[in-house]
Amino acid sequence: MRLGIHIVADLLLCQGDALKDDALIEKTLKKAAEEAGLQVIGVTTHRFEPYGVSSVLLIKESHISVHTWPEYGFAALDIFVCGGDPAKALKVIEEAFKPKQTTVIKIERGVDIEGRASA
Q1: 55 is catalytic
Q2: Domain residues for 103?
Q3: Exactly one of 6, 65, 82, 118 is catalytic; which is it?
Q4: Number of folded domains in the chain?
Q5: Which of 24, 38, 52, 54 has its CA 20 to 30 A from that of 119?
Q6: Chain-wide mean pLDDT for the chain?
Q7: Pairwise CA distance, residues 108 & 95, whole Å
Q8: Are 113 and 99 in contact (CB under 8 A)?
């Protein structure tokens, strides 16, 4: 049994100014959720001075979050879902941020809990 998929990704050497643009980041996360078949519940985004944005998208299936360091062209991405297609969400975000390299760790969550739930 698997309850969810958790993708932890580092987007390296991102091109352009997308990592500085809080409105674009929020729009991108919402589009990623939509493309992945996920239901958005809420979002909070904060732009730091002089650099960086943190955005968390709460979805019915869990969350998508990103933290950016524009001065380094780096974004730390977290996609945890119990349903939908997290690979599609990652693709949408990569298209917006244009990293030269992405490193991904995929974790299957709740694999070992079969038969352990109580009524």
Answers
A1: no
A2: 4-109
A3: 82
A4: 1
A5: 38
A6: 93
A7: 25
A8: no
Q: Phi/psi class of residue 52: alpha, beta or left (left: φ > 0; alpha: ψ in -120 to 50)?
A: left
Q: What is the pLDDT of residues 23-80, one digit of tens each?
A: 999 999 999 999 999 999 999 999 999 999 999 999 999 999 999 999 999 999 999 9
Specify the pTM.
Answer: 0.91
Q: Going by C-beta distance under 8 Å and a sequence separation of 6 or more, which residues neighbour residue 16?
A: 98
User: How many whole angstroms separate alpha carbon 68 and alpha carbon 87?
Assistant: 20
Give the active site residue among 54, 63, 65, 67. 67
pLDDT at position 13 over 50? yes
Give the CATH number, domain containing residue 55.
Answer: 3.60.90.10
Name the active-site residue from 6, 14, 55, 62: 62
Contacts of 103 (CB under 8 A, 6+ apart): 9, 10, 12
| Residue 14 bears catalytic tag | no
